[in-house]
Amino acid sequence: TVSELRTFVTETRSELLTKTQAQDELIAKNTANIQRNLELIQGLQSNQNTGYLEIKELLNTEIEARKAEDIRIEAKVDKNTRDLT
After folding, report:
1. What angle do CA 58, 44, 59 make, to 5 degrees?
2. Measuring CA to CA, how many Å separate 70 from each of 10, 60, 66, 81?
3. CA-to-CA distance for 41 and 54, rounded, in angstroms?
4. Mean pLDDT by 10-residue block, N- to C-terminus, for the chain (85 residues)?
5. What pLDDT shows up at residue 40?
6. How far apart are CA 80 and CA 74, in angstroms?
7. pLDDT for residue 73
8. Measured in whole angstroms, how far is the alpha carbon of residue 18 from the centre of its chain?
9. Taking the model in full, what pTM does it have?
10. Which pLDDT score, from 0 to 100, does residue 47 have?
11. How far apart are CA 46 and CA 52, in angstroms?
12. Cβ density class 44-65: b for 16+ within 10 Å, e for less
């Protein structure tokens, strides 16, 4: 009957609206999670870049210190060699 058909349409419409709202909520939640994950990834990339630059600076400092020490030792060896001759 027409009444049953209206009831069916109304129930189906309500069910579809409920499902649509649930999907919209999931989409909003997923969007927020994606944004959060993006921020975390960008933070990790920033930390990685900072760590790399710090390590590079420390290595350059160590290289310079070793070069200076090599020069000092070489001068000392040269002096000792001259003193022995």
Report:
1. 10
2. 89, 15, 6, 16
3. 20
4. 96 97 97 96 88 92 97 96 91
5. 95
6. 10
7. 97
8. 37
9. 0.57
10. 85
11. 10
12. eeeeeeeeeeeeeeeeeeeeee
